[in-house]
Amino acid sequence: MAELRSAYLITGTDRPKVTRALRRLRDRVGQEATEHLSANEASGEDAAAACNALGLFTVERRLVVVEDVESWKTADVKAVDEYLKGPAPTTVLALVGPGVKRDSALAKAVAKAGEVLVYDLPTRGRGNKADLPKWVEQQFHERGIQVDHDAARALVELVGEDAQELATEVDKLSTWSAGDRIGEREVAELVPARAEVPPFDLTDSWGRRDVPGVLTASERLVERSGDAARDVLLRTAGLLTNHVGRVRQCQVLDAEGVPPAAAAERLKRNRFYVQKLYEQAGNFSADELGDAVVRLARLDHALKGGSKLPGELEFARALIEITRRPETAKAPAS
Description:
Blueprint: E1 7-11, H1 15-29, E2 34-38, H2 44-57, E3 62-67, H3 74-83, E4 91-96, H4 105-113, E5 115-118, H5 132-142, H6 149-159, H7 163-177, H8 184-190, H9 200-207, H10 211-224, H11 229-255, H12 260-267, H13 271-281, H14 286-306, H15 311-323
Helix pairs in contact: 2-3, 3-4, 5-6, 5-7, 6-8, 9-10, 10-15, 11-13, 11-14, 12-13, 14-15
């Protein structure tokens, strides 16, 4: 095993790898021999003092971790640079800051006496945006799991762009698969959607035109969330509006003869999710979906102060109106 350096700067956009690199350092030194500081409270001089103090009183290897170092000022960087000219022989200084650039003054200071570890998400080019599906595939491969590209893309669609949350789902799926290959269907069935779509129990009930179901789902949303009821309702109303908009898109595509699989490619969405959108579109007329979008816009206005009624009541009324089936016209009495 390689000898530990006097200092490390751990940075980059791949937060799970940054976290793992720091964990490896702690494992080598030992949790009891590790001191944690935050650059939001500790200066560069404080970090240097902590390293020197540890070095004076122990012959064992110790670790000083300073997180959020991207918040340090020039004076802090100079203090660390000065310390690294004669670092404590038994202390390892680990500076963690995902926002620190590899060509920054802090990175150059650490490189003289230690090592700069940069873990960035892969990029796809345009605007340097992260190619998260590719990154997800790499995460599975590192765990010895084969995964379809469509499955990796579906995971990003369902979870969103938070690398830490994606890594958590990768761990869960890897454990569940027990070494077997993971496909898109497994991802769709096992990963809860939380990226730009409201909980499926609400949208599923709406899609079935199940009025009691949507009301129950909305009540659970408010009960289970730690946020204020108004914030939950506003957020859910916006997400539901997006969902209804996608159902309208699929209804149009269906009318044009576009099958769900092709629509999924065109919309860049999970194939099973788009299949569900197609099914829901069949339960509504084009006019009903258009009216639903308008009604949800009115709900948004009401929740933002446009109504004197309680938000929960406005939300329930809107759900009922966009979910219930039109009343069957009564035949004239003979």
